[in-house]
Design brief:
With 506 residues, the chain is of the alpha+beta class. Helix 4 packs across helix 7, helix 5 packs antiparallel against helix 7 and helix 6 packs across helix 7.
């Protein structure tokens, strides 16, 4: 159920980018820290807390920090999620450094940025491994978090009805995000046991198109209440005292609500060689799904499309197509990790034989197949031997790259016989796509699923919604347009074929 965790992490990122800065105090005297606390609710139940703080050091540098901690039910287990950011700038608004910590698995993923005269030094750390790179400074006109707060307060006080800002936020890396706020009206909301005068704003962000957050801000531009609903998973942030925010609570159960119930059950989904599906959303726009590997995506209208999955399809790669990104190491896919290299070196034969050998090896290596791992990296998995489909996909991807085979990661839906008491549903899933040679020359993208063991490497009861190289920075951004599908996607099974026999329509 990896895509569930990826979408929850994306939900956390949306809330963080949109709401965390609004929680901060307007400023702090030198040597002091001003902080504000919020309760985090999901699906109407307390899930955790958020803290925002500003401080000014003796050196005159200004520091803004935000952190969000929450836990959720994922079937029979609980998963803890932690996101923390920090931004340091000078008194005149020049960036000094920023940092983001995202923890969804056994070890946190840490990205650190130091702003130099002509470049930004970037360090990505996970599982004890650190990768450094020099990146170009973000271009264009943008605001630091503190400058964005000052600008927002000034424009709210001036009575502006629509406010657009370009902001550099640690949670989205070196790409400034365009934030648009549209004023809906004034009113009062309940916070900390009292009624607070506030203004309601509808907020959209360029990196999360189609997703709206609602903010109730006080006259200083601070967050009193905020909310976002992504595909039926609702998160709300409420101003609170520290003690209430930190009080323990039972985690809300979310995984069952994300299962997709099709119009009919697929019998023996692991034997399906060809499937035709109509996918849709009840309102808004259906994002484009990839035509890649065994899958072809054909749009019918704004909200509807036909997906045909045929395991015999040949997805030939264009001559000279980009390969570097699909061979590179990243925080999630540590192909240069010595333990991963050792794991992959046993594979023998040509590329197709190596890919199949590694697929089976990953399946056998992960001997604790459980839901209580959030989003672990390949470096974690090769050592812990624990996880679900996410961990199978990233370890196989890392092993393939270590063996010199380009590959990407696909995320989408998988038909399953039964899960959490639901029968014949689609659960969110992740697998791998490898670039393998064709007998007559050329190369093709081939789907390989390490969760399927010694049987077939793939079946047509998969529906891909996203394909990515899973480079650093891809984890959130590549799924931003798809996260609203959670709880909203509809699947109609039109036709399936198994072992050469067409099942046809019901």
């Amino acid at each position: 159920m990896s895509r569930f965790m990826r979408s929850v992490s994306c939900l956390a990122a949306v809330v963080f980018a949109a709401l965390a800065a609004r929680g901060a105090a307007p400023g702090a005297a030198p040597g002091t820290t001003e902080e504000r606390w919020h309760v985090v609710e999901m699906m109407g139940a307390k899930a955790g807390w958020m803290r925002s703080a500003t401080s000014t050091g003796a050196d005159g540098l200004l520091r803004f920090e935000s952190e969000m901690h929450f836990h959720i039910g994922r079937g029979p287990v609980n998963i803890e999620v932690r996101v923390e950011t920090a931004f340091v700038e000078t008194a005149d608004g020049r960036p000094v450094s920023m940092r983001v910590v995202q923890e969804f698995g056994p070890t946190p993923a840490i990205a650190e940025y130091e702003f130099k005269a002509d470049h930004v030094l970037v360090r990505n750390t996970q599982g004890g491994r650190t990768m450094e790179s020099h990146e170009a400074p973000p271009g264009g006109d943008w605001l630091t978090p503190r400058r964005a707060e000052e600008d927002l307060r000034r424009r709210i006080a001036a009575g502006e009805k629509q406010i657009r800002q370009s902001v550099l936020d640690p949670s989205t890396g070196l790409r400034p995000i365009e934030v648009t706020r549209v004023r809906k009206g004034d009113g009062a909301v309940e916070a900390m046991g009292k009624s607070v005068a506030a203004t309601e704003w509808v907020v959209t962000q360029s990196v999360y198109p189609g997703i709206e957050t609602i903010e109730w801000l006080d006259r200083d531009g601070r967050l009193v209440r905020g909310s976002v609903d992504m595909g039926g998973i609702a998160m709300e942030i409420l101003a609170s005292e520290r003690e209430l925010a930190l009080a323990e609570s039972a985690p809300p159960e979310l995984l069952a609500s994300t299962l997709v119930r099709p119009n009919r059950r697929i019998e023996d989904p692991r034997s399906v060689s060809r499937g035709v599906y109509i996918v849709s959303v009840p309102d808004g726009s259906l994002p484009d799904f990839p035509s890649a590997g065994a899958q072809v995506f054909e749009r019918i209208d704004e909200r509807t499309a036909r997906v045909t999955v045929d395991v015999s399809r040949v997805d030939a790669a264009e001559p000279g197509a980009e390969r570097a990104a699909y061979l590179a190491s990243s925080s999630m896919i540590g192909a240069d990790d010595p333990e991963v290299a050792k794991f992959a070196v046993v594979a023998r034969g040509d590329e197709a034989e190596k890919a199949e050998a590694l697929r089976r090896r990953v399946h056998g290596h992960i001997d604790q197949k459980s839901l209580d791992v959030g989003l672990a990296s390949a470096s974690d998995v090769v050592r812990t031997r624990q996880g679900d489909c996410t961990e199978h996909a990233v370890l196989l991807a890392a092993a393939l790259r270590a063996a010199g085979i380009p590959c990407g990661v696909a995320a989408g839906g998988l038909s399953i016989d039964e899960f959490l008491g639901a029968v014949g549903v689609f659960g969110y899933h992740m697998w791998t796509q490898a670039l393998l040679p064709l007998e007559g020359g050329g190369w093709a993208w081939v789907d390989v699923d390490a969760t399927m063991g010694d049987g077939s490497a793939y079946d047509a009861a998969h529906i891909a919604m996203d394909v990515s190289a899973l480079a650093d920075g891809d984890l959130m951004n590549s799924l931003a347009a798809l996260a609203p599908l959670m709880g909203r996607l509809r699947v109609e099974v039109v036709e399936v074929e198994s072992a050469g026999v067409g099942a046809g329509a019901p």
